[in-house]
Amino acid sequence: MTRNRWLAAAALIGLAVFGLWAKPFALLPERQDPSVVSIELDPVYRQQYLLAQAWRFPVAVAYRRAGFTHQDNASFCGPASASNLLRSAGIEASQDALAALSSAQSILGSLPMGLTLDEEADMLRKAAPWPVTVVRDSTLADFRAHLSGANDPARRYIVNFDRGALFGRGHGHFSPVLGYLSGPDLVFVGDVNRDYGAYLVRTERLWRATDTVDSTSGKSRGLIVVDIRPEPDGTAPGSRTPSPP
After folding, report:
1. Taking CA 199 as the corner, what is the angle to CA 195 and CA 203, rounded to the nearest 5 degrees?
2. Which of 106-110, 114-118, 236-240 has the highest mean pLDDT?
3. So where are the chain's domains?
4. Tens digit of pLDDT for each residue in 129-140?
5. Is the pLDDT of residue 28 over 60?
6. Contact indicator for 95, 76 with CB cutoff of 8 Å
7. pLDDT tens digits for 195-212?
8. Rounded-to-integer distance, Cα 56 and Cα 218, Å
9. pLDDT per residue over 166-176, tens digit each?
10. Summary mean pLDDT of the chain
11. Across the chain, which distance is largest between two alpha carbons, in Å?
12. How far apart are CA 168 and CA 11, in angstroms?
């Protein structure tokens, strides 16, 4: 092999190693569960007239106005969800800045183990001046009662669920809740994974996906509730960029 070919081979190996460290989840085989019927087959999943209605809800409007963004890498569903939530309330917060606030292990700008529900909540507490509450182990009735407030402009939700329980593939995941349709009992999820986008899911199905155990924490998944409060001078929440510790 010539010297140039050796250099080219070394470069390819280097790139592969870097990819292994920087985006580990992208290289792991996606977990499949053929026994699960994907919500993609449910007629309400992308029902256009229902989606059009959902996008008119005040919280969904706030997310859209702020410019909804998707996760920067395969391990950033937590930072991406938090970034979208904060920007919808007037606080500029990049995914990288939020990841730096997290207590989770970071390698080359990636979060190899992702974030647990508690780590996501702690990250938000460092970035925002508002009360942040973790809700887990709720009954279906309690879960539905919480989400009935998802259209309140003074409140924001992030849901932590097992994607496998919804789609028959994937792992634990975070995404913001953009709204709730009370009549058909549907949750409007703004998935931070670009391949999924915004969709509707039946409340009971989403609840079952949150009523699963995160193998990292050993605890159940669930919801994060952020109560948006005005600034002390009575104005709407202003700009506040979180800084790494």
Report:
1. 130
2. 114-118
3. 3-227
4. 999 999 999 999
5. no
6. yes
7. 999 999 999 999 999 999
8. 38
9. 999 999 999 99
10. 84
11. 71
12. 37
Averaged pLDDT, 109-135: 89
CA dist., res. 188 & res. 176, Å (int): 9
Q: What is the DSSP string of the chain?
A: --HHHHHHHHHHHHHHHHHHHH-HHHHSPPPB-TTS--GGGSTTTT-HHHHHHHTTSHHHHHHHHH-----SSTT-HHHHHHHHHHHHTT----HHHHHHH--S--BTTB-TT---HHHHHHHHHHH-SS-EEEEES--HHHHHHHHTTTT-TTEEEEEEEEHHHHHSB--EEEEEEEEEETTTTEEEEE-SSTTT-EEEEEHHHHHHHHSSB-TTTSSB-EEEEEE----TTSPPP--------
Q: What CATH class has 3-227?
A: alpha beta
Q: Which amino acid is located at 107 in the chain? A: I
Question: CB burial class (10 A; 0-12, 13-18, 19+) of residue 94?
Answer: middle
Helix axes 58-66, 77-88, angle to 10 degrees: 110
pLDDT exceeds cutoff 60 at 70: yes
